[in-house]
Design brief:
4 copies of one chain form a homotetramer. By secondary structure, chain A is an alpha/beta fold. Chain A has a single domain, classed as Aldolase class I (TIM Barrel). Chain A has 15 helices and 18 strands. In chain A, helix 8 links the parallel strand 12 and strand 13. Chain A is globular, with a radius of gyration of 20 Å. Strand 2 of chain A pairs parallel with strand 19 of chain B.
C-alpha cells in the first residue's frame, strides 16, 4: 500500500485512474480471431463481458434485446421511464429536445410519476420472450418494495445499484432498513450490487451473497460525484482493491464473486485496462448513449439528475456516432476508439498475447503520468 | 513526513492540495437526514460549520444576519466599508461598476477613509439585535487600536486575520509591537486567528489562547499570494499539519483549539475534504460573492487589493448564481456544485457513512493526480 | 524497479515518457564540429543514426535515395503503394487531397490492390543503383510470402515491423505460423524487428538473431494504439528496459543487438534523450512527412489506417515545413525544433560534452514533471 | 538523492522546477520595512540581489545606469549591438518592427557586423561615469579576444556566459582552447561564469576562481534549449545542487562562491524561491524587456537567436508594462506579479519572517504538483 503523508496529522493512499495505467505487451502475440471474450456468472454465459448500464437513455426493452443478441446483457432501469409509463416514447423525445435550462425541471416532473409494479412484469416478459437474458436495475431504497414484482417477473439477473451501496446502511427513525446481508441471500436470483470503491466495502458486499459487485464511485466521466461531493476512488485502484477483497473472500468461502467495473471507460483500451486491474466484466452507460438506436437520441442521464435539491449529473448530450452494434462490435470507420469496443479489446488482448479474460487479468501494467 | 530531495543541497516536503485528495466511502452508508452538521466553539453552537469571510463584497450587517439565521456565522470586516462609512451602498455600486482599469485606483481611494470606532459599535449592535451571533474581523496591525471599540460593542467572536499571522511578529523601531501571546488572553471574547500554514506556526498560534486558528496561506483561488510571493502550502497538507499541532497542544494543555480551513474551497466536496484533513469548520468568501443578495453584486475583493504599492488580489467578478440561502443550503437546480454546499456536505457524509463532523474527520483519503 | 501498488490486488511499474526526462550537461563541453554522429550495424556504417520509417507518405524510392545520400537510411514499405502499383503518383495525390470523411474508405480501397513481388525487386534495384544502402519493411504476417522476392532483390537491410511483434506468435488453426526464432537466422541479410516494449519481449526478439530491434509500442504521437487499445509503455522506460535486455543478451552471447527507438520523437532533443536512454539509432516517420519533397505532400498514414474494422491511426495532415535535407541536417531558420534534427543532436552532445553516440548513452538524466 | 529507475537499464534523478516548490512561512513574521535585500560580492555591495541579463533588448548603457541607480546591476552584452555599432538606435527600432517571418534573417544580418574593441571601452566609460558599477557579458569563445579591451576599459565585473559553460571545454584542431581554470585567475576583476546545471559542473566552475557562477540551462521561459536540445535541469534542483557544490568548495577552500540563478523567474515569488533553493542573487532578462524604457521596445532576444543554422530562441514580443523602476521596485497598480519584483520579494520575506537573504536561504520549502 503506497501510503503517503498528506500532512503530519493525516495520511492517505495513492490512487490511480485508468488513464494513468497502460498494459505491457507480453513476450507472446496472438491472432485476434483466437481471443475468447466470453464471461460466465452464475448459470449464465455471455459472449462479451459487457453490461449496459440501467440508464433510460441507453436501455429500453428493445435495446436490451439488441444487447442480448450481440452477446452482451443490458440492465433495464426498473425505476425508470419504462416502468413508470406504459409508453414513454414521447417523453424520451421531450427530454432529448428540452432546452438546457429547462431539462432539469422537466426530468424532475417526469420522474415524479410512480413506478408501476405490473409494468416491471411486462417489460421483463418482453425481453425474455426474445430469448435473451433479462436483467434489471433498482436502487437500494426501492428494492424491497419492488421485490415481489421482480420475483414474479422471473427476472434473470438483478442489479441493486446506487452511487454508493454498502452492506450496512444505517438509518434512524425507520424500523427496519434494508439489510443487504440477509436480503440478497433470500432472493432466488443472482444479484449484482454496488457501487463501492474500497477493499472493506467490497469485501462486505461480497459477504452478502451477491454474485457480483459493481466497483466505481464517481468514476464515470458524466458523474459529478467526485466534483460535487469530493468522494470517490480513482478507478484502477478501486478495482485492484476489490480484487484483493475477492481473493480474501474466495479464500474464506471458496466463492468467486465477480467484479464489474462501472464507469470511467470510453474505449476498448479502457475496458482492457479495467480487466487487467481485476475486473471480470464492465458496465458501460455513456458510450452506448451515442448509438443512433439508443432511446436517448444522443443523450444520457441518471436518476440522480432528477434529485429535487441536489442533482448530480444532468442530461448530457453526446451526439450520435453509429449503431449499438457498431459501438459494441464494429466495424469502426476511423480511429477515434469509441466504435468497435470489443474489436479493440480483442486486438489489445491479441497484441499482448492473452487468449482469455482470465489470462488478461494477469497482464503487467505500467503507471504513467 | 514525505521529505524529498529538491537537489543535493536542499530538501522539501511534498504538499497536497484539496484537489489532489478524495474521500473513500467507508463500509457503511447513512441517510442524509441523519447527518448532523453542527459545530461548537467556546460557548457557541452553529448548525453549520461555515464562517463567511470578512470581505466587503460578501458580508454586510444584513447578510451577516442572514448567515446567522441560516445556521452559519459571518465575519464583518471591522476595517471595511461598513465601519468607514455611515452608508456605503453607493460605494458598493461604484466598485461593482468601475471599469477594470480604474477599479484598483478607486479601491485605494475608497479605503483611504478612516475607520470610525463608533461605527463598529453600531454595526455589531445591528447584528446582535437580530438575535444572531456577531462576529467581526480585524487585521493584526489595527487590532490594538480597535480593541476598545470592539470590547465596548460586545462583539461575540473576533477574527484577527492577515495573509500570514504569527504569534511572534518582529518589528524594529516600534516600541511595543502587538504581542499575540499576551494580547489574546487579555481579551474577554473568543478569538480566531490566522492564516497560518505550518505545524510550528499553528502550534504557536494555538498557544496564544485563541479559540481557533485559520489555516490557509495563498489557498484561495482569488488569492495571488502564491503566484506573486511564492509563499504558501497546499491546503490539504496545511490543514493536516495544523491537525498534528492541535493534537500536541491538546496533549500539552488539555485544550482543543479549533481549525478553520480558510480559502481554496468551492464545493461541498471541497469542504468535506477539508474536514477529513482535520478542519472543524471552514471559512468561505468567494463562493458567497455569487449570491444575488451579497453586497458585492457578483464581485469580491480583499483589503490587500487596495494596497498602494503591491496589491494582491483585485476586484474579481464572479457573476451571480442564486441566493445566499441557495448557495448555503439549496436547493440546487443543477449539478455545478456551487449551490447547496451544505446539502452536498451532508450527502457526502451520508454516502461515506459518517454521522457527525468528528466522525468525518476520521474518514480515509486517497491521493490522486 | 519502481514498483507501485495500483491497489491492494495489483501492482505496476512506473514508466516515463521522453517528455519526462532531460539530459544533464556533464562537466565538460565540446565543439559541435567535433561530435561524431556515425552509427554502425552489421557491415553498414551510417553517418547519421536515423532510419526513415516505412510509411508511404515518407519513403518512396526517390526519398530513400535522398535519405541515403544525406547519411541516413530509409525503409521502403514493401507492402506499400510502390510495390502494389507500377506508378502510385496519382494515388498519392488522391490520398493527400481526399476529404477527411472519405479518406479512410479511399485508403482501404487503394490498399486492397495486391503486392507484386516483382515490383519489390524493381524498387530495391532503383535504390541500390543510386549507391545507397537499400532497406525495406514488411509486416510479420506477410514476410514469409515475400521472402523469395526480398532475397532475390538483394535487399541490404530488412525491417520486420508491426504494432507489436513477438518472438512467439501463437496461432490456432494455422499449421505453421511464422517462427521468428528460426526464420531470422535463416535469412542471409541483417534484420531489424519490432516493435516491442518490455524487457522480456526485447530479450526474446534479440534471441531470434536479429541485428537490431525496434522499441516502441504506441509511442508515436500519431499512433492511436495507446488510446484505442490501452496498450504501450512510455518510451523512455521501454528503451531503458530494452537496454537491460541488450546487456543480458551481450553477456549471454557476446552479441550486441542494436536498439532502434521507434516513435514519439519530434526534435533533436527527443532523439538525444532516446539515445541517452539506450537507443543506438532512431526510426522517425511523422517528422519527415512535413518535407516538401516527401511523397505524402504534408500527410502521413500507416498500414493500420486501412484496417477494415478497427483502423488505428489515419491520414494525418502535418503541413510542409522545409526540405528533407532541412529537416535532417538544416539549416533551420527558426527555433521550432522540427528542422535540423541532426544539428540539434550534435549541439546537444556538444553542450553536454559527449563526442560519440556511445558516450551520449552514458549521460545523466533527470526526471521532471 | 531521489534516484528513480527510468527503466531496468537506466536511472535518473527527480528534478523540480521553481513552479513546483513554494515557501513555507515560519512561525515569525516581520515588517517589510525591516527586510534587508542587500547582496555583496567581492568588493561590491548591491542594495538589490538582481543582475539584468546581457540581452540587447534589455541592457543599453542608459538602462545599465538606471539599474545601477536603482540598486541593482546590469550586464551589458559586450558582443551586442552597442559594441558592434556606434549608435544602434535605428537597428533596435528595426528589430522591434520587423515582421515575424523576416526577423530571424534580419537578426543574422545585423549581428554579422564585427565587435569593435574600442566601443567596449567607450560603453564601459559611459556607465562608470554615471557612478554605477559596470558589468559586461561575453561568450566563452570570444572572451580571450576581447580580454585586452575589457581590462583596458576597467570593467568592474565580468560575466562569461553561454548556454552551457564548463571548466573543461574540449576542442580538436585548435592549439589552445580557452582554459577557464587558468584564465579566470589571471584576470584582475571578479568574474561570474555559467550557465551550468549540475553539482559537478558547478563545482568545477567554482574551482576556476570565479566570484560567482550562473546556474540555469534551458530554464528561461523564452529559451528553447530544453525543447530543441532536450538538455537542462529543472531550476530548483539545479540551484540546490549548486548549493551543495558551494558547501563543498567552501569546505575545501574557505572561499564562498556566489550562486546566481539565471532564467525561469518572472515574479518576486520566483526570485524568493530561487534564493531559498540556494541562490545569492538572480539574473533576469525577459521580465525587464517589458519596460517602456528598455531598448527592445517590448521585445527581447538572445545571441543564439541569430545562429545561422540552428537558432535557439528568437525575438519574443512581451509588450510593455511599466518603467524599469516599476518593474524592479514598484509601485504596482495591480496583482499580476510582474511589477515591483523587489517589493514582492520583500513582502514574501516579511510574511515568512526572514530579515536577510541569508536567512531566507534557510526557509522551508514544500514540493507541490
Amino acid at each position: 500500500m503506497s501510503e503517503v503523508d498528506i500532512g503530519m496529522g493525516k495520511a492517505g493512499r495513492r490512487a490511480y485512474s485508468l488513464d494513468e495505467v497502460a498494459i505491457v505487451p507480453s513476450r507472446r502475440t496472438r491472432d485476434p480471431e483466437d481471443v475468447d471474450l466470453a464471461w460466465e456468472i452464475d448459470a449464465f454465459r455471455f459472449e462479451l463481458p459487457v453490461i449496459a448500464s440501467g440508464m433510460d437513455g441507453v436501455v429500453s426493452p428493445t435495446t436490451a434485446i439488441a444487447f442480448g443478441q450481440l452477446g452482451a446483457v443490458a440492465a433495464l432501469n426498473l425505476e425508470g421511464l419504462w416502468t413508470r409509463y406504459e409508453d414513454p416514447t414521447e417523453l424520451l423525445v421531450e427530454i432529448a429536445e428540452a432546452p438546457d435550462d429547462e431539462v432539469s425541471e422537466r426530468l424532475r416532473a417526469i420522474y415524479r410519476e410512480p413506478v408501476k409494479p405490473d409494468l416491471i412484469g411486462q417489460r421483463v416478459k418482453e425481453i425474455r420472450k426474445a430469448g435473451v437474458i433479462s436483467c434489471g436495475a433498482v436502487t437500494p431504497h426501492r428494492v424491497e418494495d419492488l421485490t415481489d414484482a421482480i420475483v414474479a417477473a422471473e427476472l434473470d439477473l438483478l442489479v441493486i445499484q446506487g452511487t454508493v451501496v454498502s452492506a450496512e446502511h444505517v438509518t434512524k427513525g425507520v424500523d427496519d432498513p434494508l439489510n443487504l446481508k440477509t436480503f440478497v441471500r433470500r432472493l432466488d436470483l443472482p444479484v449484482l450490487v454496488g457501487g463501492c470503491s474500497s477493499y472493506q466495502a467490497a469485501l462486505h458486499l461480497m459477504r452478502t451473497g451477491a454474485a457480483g459487485i459493481l466497483v466505481g464511485v464517481g468514476a464515470g466521466r458524466s458523474s459529478s460525484t467526485r466534483r460535487v461531493l469530493g468522494t470517490g476512488v480513482a478507478q484502477a485502484t478501486a478495482i485492484a482493491d476489490a480484487r484483493a477483497a475477492r481473493m480474501r473472500h474466495l479464500d474464506e468461502t471458496g466463492v468467486y464473486v465477480h467484479i464489474i467495473a462501472d464507469g470511467g471507460m470510453a474505449t476498448g483500451g479502457d475496458i482492457a485496462k479495467a480487466i487487467v486491474c481485476g475486473a471480470d466484466a464492465v458496465m458501460l452507460g455513456a458510450p452506448f448513449a451515442a448509438a443512433v438506436d439508443a432511446p436517448g437520441r444522443g443523450h444520457h442521464w441518471g436518476l440522480a439528475a432528477a434529485h429535487p435539491t441536489l442533482p448530480r449529473g444532468s442530461r448530457v448530450a453526446v451526439g450520435t456516432r453509429g449503431t449499438l452494434e457498431q459501438i459494441l462490435t464494429g466495424p469502426a470507420p476511423d480511429d477515434r476508439g469509441d466504435l468497435n469496443l470489443m474489436g479493440a479489446l480483442r486486438r489489445a488482448m491479441a497484441l499482448c498475447g492473452h487468449a482469455t479474460l482470465k489470462e488478461l487479468q494477469k497482464a503487467d501494467l505500467v503507471v504513467t503520468s
